[in-house]
Specification:
Blueprint lengths: L2 H35 L6 E3 L7 E6 L8 E6 L7 E7 L2 E4 L3 E8 L5 E8 L3 E5 L3 E6 L5 E9 L9 E8 L4 E4 L4 E4 L2 E3 L5 E7 L5 E8 L2 E8 L4 E7 L2 E5 L5 E7 L8 E7 L5 E3 L11 E4 L2 E7 L7 E7 L7 E4 L2 E7 L2
Parallel strand pairs: 1-4, 13-18
Antiparallel strand pairs: 2-3, 2-27, 3-4, 5-6, 6-7, 7-8, 9-10, 10-11, 11-12, 13-14, 15-16, 16-17, 17-18, 19-20, 20-21, 21-22, 23-24, 24-25, 25-26
C-alpha cells in the first residue's frame, strides 16, 4: 500500500467514525428531548405558588416536569403534586423563602444559588450544588457546594459553605471561621465545613467539620466567627424542631469508602440512636416533626430518580417510602 493509499484509508476510517459518533449523539439527544417533553410519570398540577401545610421537594419523575420544585399536602403525601416552573438540583423552603441551588447549562456549565420569596438574592457557586438550609424564622440562609469533586464519597473533595442573611449580608465562607477541636485550633489546609442547620437565635448553627480523615459536629457562632467541636463522626446534621437532638449521617465505613446510616444524637446526654440500617444514605435529613425523619434516597435501578423515605426518630420501625420520585424535602407550615 502506497503512502497516499494509507492516508486515504485513514481518512475514510476517520470519516466513518465521525459519522457513527454524530449518529449516536443525535439519537441520544433526540431520546433525551423526547423524555424531557413527555408527559409526567406522575399526576401533577402546574402552579405559580404553593399554599398550605406541605412538603416541598425536587420532582424526579421523568417527563416535562423533571427537576422542578414540587409540593404535596402534609395530609396526603402520596397525593397529586403541585409543580412550579423553577428547576433546581437542591431546594429548601420555609413559608417565606425558597433556596434553589441549580446548574446553569451552556457552552460553559456554571452553578448558582437563587433565593426567592419575601426577599430575593442570588450568587454564583464554585461547583456542583450540595446542601442548603433556611433558619426557621427565614432570617438566615446557607448553602454548600463542591469546589472539587461531586460527592462526599470522593477522595479529595473540597467544599465551600456560605451563610448569609436573607437581606443580603454575607458571612462569607465559614471555612475561614476559627475551628476548635477539643480546645485546639485546627488550621490544616484540607479542612472542609458543610451541612449547616440553624438554631432559633439567628446567631448559632451546627455543621460538619472535617480534616485529616476525621469529622466532627461543630457548633458555629456568627458573632465570634468560631466553630467548636461537639461530637465525633457526625455528617450533615439536622437540628430537631424542639432543639434537643441532631439527626445526622453516621459513617460505618471509612472516610474514603463511606457507609452512611441515619442516626440521632441527644444533645444533652450525647447518646446516639441509629435509626436506619437498610441503606447507605447520602443526604441531609429533614424533620417531619419531633418524632419522624425524612431523607432522599436514589433508586438503585433508575439513574436520576429517587424517593423520599420516612423513619421514626427513635428507631422503633423500619424506613418506608413516603413520596415516590422525589428528592430534597423540606416541611413547610405557614
Amino acid at each position: 500500500m502506497t503512502p497516499r493509499q494509507r492516508i486515504l484509508l485513514l481518512t475514510a476510517i476517520s470519516v466513518v467514525a465521525l459519522i457513527v459518533v454524530v449518529a449516536f449523539g443525535g439519537v441520544a439527544y433526540l431520546q433525551s428531548q423526547a423524555e424531557r417533553n413527555a408527559p409526567s410519570a406522575v399526576a401533577v398540577t402546574p402552579v405559580t405558588s404553593f399554599a398550605g401545610a406541605r412538603i416541598e421537594f425536587r420532582n424526579t419523575a421523568f417527563g416535562a416536569d423533571f427537576g422542578r420544585v414540587a409540593s404535596v399536602s402534609l395530609d396526603d403525601p402520596a397525593g397529586e403534586r403541585s409543580v412550579s416552573r423553577q428547576v433546581c438540583d437542591r431546594v429548601y423552603s420555609t413559608s417565606k423563602l425558597t433556596m434553589c441551588l441549580k446548574t446553569d447549562a451552556g457552552i460553559v456549565t456554571t452553578w448558582s444559588a437563587l433565593q426567592t420569596g419575601s426577599q430575593e438574592q442570588n450568587w454564583s457557586l464554585p461547583g456542583v450544588p450540595s446542601r442548603t438550609r433556611i433558619s426557621a424564622d427565614s432570617q438566615l440562609v446557607a448553602e454548600t457546594s463542591f469546589v472539587t469533586g461531586v460527592s462526599y464519597a470522593a477522595v479529595g473533595f473540597a467544599t465551600e459553605t456560605i451563610i448569609a442573611t436573607a437581606a443580603g449580608e454575607s458571612y462569607g465562607n465559614i471555612e475561614r471561621f476559627t475551628l476548635l477541636v477539643d480546645g485546639v485550633q485546627m488550621t490544616a489546609a484540607d479542612r472542609n465545613i458543610w451541612g449547616v442547620t440553624f438554631t432559633d437565635d439567628d446567631r448559632h448553627f451546627y455543621a460538619t467539620a472535617a480534616t485529616g480523615g476525621s469529622t466532627w459536629l461543630v457548633r458555629g457562632d456568627l458573632v465570634d466567627r468560631t466553630l467548636t467541636s461537639v461530637h465525633d463522626d457526625v455528617e450533615c446534621p439536622s437540628l430537631s424542631p424542639d432543639g434537643t437532638r441532631i439527626a445526622f449521617k453516621k459513617n460505618g465505613g471509612s472516610f474514603s469508602a463511606p457507609d452512611w446510616h441515619i442516626a440521632v444524637l441527644d444533645l444533652q446526654t450525647m447518646s446516639e440512636t441509629v435509626v436506619s440500617d437498610k441503606h447507605s444514605v447520602d443526604d441531609q435529613v429533614e424533620w417531619l416533626d419531633d418524632s419522624t425523619l425524612l431523607y432522599g434516597l436514589p433508586r438503585a435501578d433508575v439513574v436520576g430518580d429517587s424517593d423520599i423515605w420516612s423513619v421514626p426518630a427513635d428507631g422503633s420501625a423500619p424506613p418506608t417510602v413516603l413520596i415516590q420520585h422525589a428528592w430534597s424535602p423540606s416541611v413547610v407550615r405557614p
